[in-house]
Amino acid sequence: MHVLAQADLRLDANAVDYLLLAFYFVLVLGIGYLARRQVSTSLDFFLSGRSLPAWVTGLAFIAANLGAIEVMGMSANGAQYGMPTAHYFWIGAVPAMLFLGIVMMPFYYGSKVRSVPEFMLRRFGKPAHLVNGISFASAQILIAGANLFLLASVVNLLLGWPIWVSVILAAVIVLAYTALGGLSAAIYNEVLQFFVIVAALLPLTIVGLYKVGGWEGLVDKVTAGPGGAEQLSSWTGNQLTGFGSNFLSVLGLVFGLGFVLSFGYWTTNFVEVQRAMASKSMSAARRTPIIGAFPKMLMPFIVIIPGMIAGVTVTELMGENKEALLAGDAAGSGADFNDALLLLMRDLLPNGMLGIALAGLLASFMAGMAANLSSFNTVFTYDIWQAYLKKGRPDGYYLRIGRVVTACATVLAIGTAFIASTYANLMDYLQQLFSFFNAPLFATFILGMFWKRMTPTAGWLGLVTGTASAISVFILAETGVWDLPGQGAAFVGAGAAFVVDIVVSVVVSYLTAPKPVAQLAGLVYSETPKATRTHSTTGDDAGWYRNPGLLAGIVLVITIVLNIIF
């Protein structure tokens, strides 16, 4: 990115754009200040006092995932791979979001746990709880750093400030509102940020399509360019997976991305689950991920398509430059696919609209980082500090610790931002992290939730060996022992982590003693009475349009249709 700034490709923002940006930042900090007045207990700070309506938590659920990596990374993938990137939404998100709402949310919300690691504590005991708490906290710091690096890159391109100055400034703004108002501030800002992001990306898509001559024009230009017509159909996605075989590519997408990585992320990642846990009722908690799935399945049209347009209209990403980037070499322009969205904004948007677009980008970065920070501070405070280091202190003590931990996490994220800066496509980095942290957790979780014989020892040993196997695949790919280009290493690593975790868990379970069945109510599906897995259909939860099952069915049908069309 710094090469771009040196090459004088800075975005041509004027006073109107800066005024819009300043207004946005004042609004964000104002929401943090107002939310602070609602925070009197640690539950208010970490889980919004479980008081928010489903539409708020639903939009926050999706905005928490619309971080810098999602918006910039998916548009980078759009420029690099084209329509196969839609798998991250239609295969790699929506089915798992529906599963979370229908099957898993009753366990999370019904057990009144404050975090995913706390659920692990009740099901498997302290060793699994500690392993999960530490691995989750580590992942959030690494992912927050990636969000922070992209945010800094935009400020660098916009103002020409050095990356390190931009990183610190961006971190201070996110820290200010997250430390002030806790989860409520993060969630209300995420709802605002969702609308700002859509207001930024929708005009960019429309103007971009107009420039290339509509969808037909885009099809012609992509077909004639490097990558060819393969980039126009989401299946089989060989470029994305890195596999030459259609069968292996589809298997990698459906099993590696669609099952292991996707379900691992959406159903056990506390960043997302925390938003649903802040809902005011069981029905609202179940509807949260399902409401989020509606905008999620339409996101490719305002995230991936601008990337594809950039790949055929932005000089730095066209022709020989694109061929060089696809071959893994540096482009002569100094640009890379991560720059696709910024360069498209530079080329297409007039002043005023550019300010809104920049606010949308900054909103996406801050939403992602704030989600990382608010989930990190909850897990660290409840699951590490309170559980193992300082037990039995007054509630006010943990509220203060939560704010201090938020500040410490921000400092650590500044450090990990420089790890993220070494990746040309940050989506590769993110999928790699998910294969380490999320895939083994999902295996442990799903086996423990549906198999009452699984033992506490199997819980933590499965997690450790699953993570180790994913890291082993990564090392083999990095050292050239296995040739796994694209995101193949992440898909294979996720599959290995899942299989190893399941096998180890089953073997260890038969060699060790299980928990008494009486202790498994609310934690294992077969031992939980149906009455506690269902929700009220009266009052605020009445009406067919609030039925989680019906809403999930509608989303599923539309998603299947989109997969067939594209």
TrEMBL record:
CC per GO annotation: plasma membrane
InterPro entries (alphabetical): Na/Glc_symporter_sf, Na/solute_symporter, Na/solute_symporter_CS
Subcellular location: Membrane
Coiled-coil portions: none
Any Pfam family matching the protein: SSF
Topology in the lipid bilayer: Multi-pass membrane protein
Membrane-traversing stretches: 18-35, 55-76, 88-109, 130-155, 161-180, 192-210, 247-268, 289-309, 353-380, 401-423, 429-451, 458-477, 489-511, 549-565
GO MF annotation terms: D-glucose:sodium symporter activity
Keywords: Membrane, Transmembrane, Transmembrane helix
Family: Belongs to the sodium:solute symporter (SSF) (TC 2.A.21) family.
Protein name, entry field: SSS family solute:Na+ symporter
Species of origin: Amycolatopsis cihanbeyliensis
